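Running this now, will post back.
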Amino acid sequence: MGYENLHATWVEGHLKKRKGERRGRLARGHGHSDQLFAKNVWYKLKGNFDHLHPEFEVLDWRGRPYFADFGYLPGDYLRLLIEIKDFGSHVREKDRQGHSRECCRETFLTAMGYVIISFSYDDVKERPDLCIMLLRMVLSQYEPKFGDGEARKMALAEKEIVRLAFALAREVRPVDVVRHLNIDHRTAVRLLQSLCSKGWFRPIVRENGLRVVKYELIRQNWWE
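Update: finished.
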């Protein structure tokens, strides 16, 4: 089943399960920006819409309903809320009180155990690979921990090395990875070489060109 049919079936399935304002909100609210995220980002990353809820209803600190663009609830270990924000409408519709409510709402939902992330409409449209990379990094903190396969462990380690590179703000040496992940030198080098083959890093050699001494995170234009 291709994207169009899968997306239509997914939305229709949620419409059938909802009534009243929850149904009306989905019928009205799942618009262009949400559909673009579903197609350009989520489907490319996941290939399905399992556990993803469009126009997901939560209650704020006042007990009033609030609809996040998406809720992702794969299990008790993760409750993720995703917002797609258009700069024009987001700025135009927000006053000082609205800004305060948004801050309180996000803090309250965080206290209630939700993980909240936001993407700009411009990035979803123009730089979906950036959104995919960031979303993958968020999910990797949770989902791989619940698998015991070697591939999942390697994937988690690679994502952690990417995060390490951002935190260090410099080239990464094998010894940095050894200390950060508490692994041996050979495994650290193997992980860094794997990331090079996937286009995340490039090796940096000594002046004589005979030995790789560190690895540089490749900051493509869509990262900046």
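Residues 3-140 form one domain. More later if anyone needs it.
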